[in-house]
Amino acid sequence: MKLAFGYLLLGLICCFVPLFNIVGYESAALFAVIGGFASVALGHRFWTERCPTSFQTLDSPWVRSLQLLAWHLLLLSGPLALLTLNGLRVENCDPATGLLFWLVLVVPSLLIGQTVALLSVGGFRTRGVRILVSVAAVIGSIAWFLAHLALQPPITGFQWFLGYFSGSIYDEALSVPSSLVWYRVMCLLGVATVVSAFDARWRFRTGRPHALMAVVAVFAFVGCAWMFTNRVDHGIDIDRAHIQKQLGGRVETEHFIIYFPANAQFRKEIEHLKDDHEFRYHEMVEFFGLDPVKDGGDKLESYVYPNREVKGQLMGGRRTLVAKLWLGEMHIMWRKPGDHLLAHELSHLFTPSFGTGPLRLSTRYLVGINMGLVEGIATAADWPARNMTPHEASAALRALDRAPDIRRLLSASGFWTASSGRAYTLVGSFIRYLRDTYGIEKIRAAYGHGEFEKAYGKSVDELVSEWEAFIDTVELSERQKAQARFVYDKPSIFQKKCARVIGEWRREAYLALDASDVNQAEALFQKILGYDDNPRYQLEYAQFLLKVQRFDEAAATAQKVIDADLGPSFEAQGRQLLGDALWVKGSLKNADGEYSRCLELGVPLDTHRLVTVKRGTLRSTSGPTAELGLDYLLREPDSQVALFYPTDWVRRNPDNPLANYLIGRRLWGANEFTRALPFLDAARGRMGDEILEYETELMYGQALYWLGRDEAIEVFEQLSKAKSSPYAQAGEEWANRTRWRSGRNTVEAR
User: What is the pTM assigned to this prediction?
Assistant: First the structure.
């Protein structure tokens, strides 16, 4: 009764904890772990009461095992019923998948736990030895799981009771993976081996037919052994050797061993990949005042994955990049030179020398991890400025009253429960302020245990107050505030309805769309909207409708978002999509108006560039060239012949800056820098928009850089004076890169 009451109490508590409050993965994993441990204890009592020293008086072990399982499942029916009923209060979008998680996680855990007890009680006579064997088996399973998680690349893993560890919470999409099914079948075969062997022994000792049970035990053992031998091929216990083999490419530089996809695209860009790694290493040496490789460490290892799906299959975390700094390795996706994703993960690999604990992180009492410091120092070192610097973004968030208290973010629980975009930005700004004001040495002194007062002689509250006073002096334009609202107005996973389920449906929808399975994608989008009429999902559906050329429906969906009056960010996205639909339908004046209103609301830089190009193309073309611009930007942007449209546009109108910009950008994106240069040069100074001018200069300078042209430094130095902080920072960064490369080449020449 005590266990039944405990399960009910835990189920009641879960009803009020996000993610755990429905029948799904989190609640299943929790009860699988607790139920697994409980089943070991229950099994000891159950088997001992019926079999103090031998199996002479015991009924069939198989029958007894199933009886114990049924009784334990009855105890768990209480919390399962509570969570099911809670689905009336907190909607569960896919209870069938939730029940499937309970089936594949909880039921095998109970069987494994009671089988561990059977093995101990049936194999040993003294109580102490039995308990010791059970404890050793459980601890061994946990140790295997933790060791693999710590010492191998994957951030997902498998364990007897937990079943499946899904990795980072930033990867919202989750369904029952085939690897989990394989693992659970392997576990059940192990259970069948043990129970059948004891059943055969019992039958033999009691004079009953035992050959069949012996055969079952042998076949179950062979099946389990075969599955265990082939587990890596099915996504279980994947190690770095397997990942290296699957990626296929390997190259070594001064400071790195880089593993990359051995395909034509990456082989073509290998020099860019090497150059980018080495420059980012140089940046980190400058920031941290450390050179881990030169100071006696091994070369750092970088694993570069071609896309999210491959990364998810090989090491988990489709949307999460990982640095296992205690191993000196990082796992990233790399899009092009200058990508800040590389810089962020690399920065983690510079912190072990002043971290603490076995993982060399910032820890509290060697147990809790100060995630605010871990990610804050990485963001401060990387210092991304996609739309504005972290200082500017922090100032905007505070001005908009959307900044969580940074004091809470500096703790592990507070950091994880906040929206990731805001959390990373704010703690990065705070750490960068401390570094620029007090120097890197004090940060290194405080980092290990979060001992700010010991390192600075000031409390965290005093330091945060200083930072807040500094941030509040940062001048912002209304456009920057609007951009911050657009970029950072996103809920955390704990605030979303059916986050796991809808995340998985969205992933499947885009995979279906990539595979040209329009009907499947349509069904999934409709399914999502049927459960959550969230404007973000409506906008995604409108984009889908545009892609499949259902323009009237796309316009209606976008208009619905606009009419809902949900704030500038949603309105801006809706107006862009409405403008697209109207342009394709031939309503040029109305489309122009929607684009103009979109830009007035304040949008991220990439959206600003795209909408400005669309509006400029719409305004500057007529007759055949108007159709060419429309075909390229909206009708067939992903077509194999897409480049034909702006090329024909330039043939008809050689001086048009937009057409030259579009061709130059396409060639620049394909790393065809020699071919891109004349088109980018023809667009320079003629774009009619400040942001597009900066973008053209950046691409032009990068093309010169990769071609080894001396003029690159002049272009970047001029760009570093831009009024837009992201472009000013990009200009400074690429100017530094050019100087570094020049000095490096000089040193190598000597």
Answer: 0.90
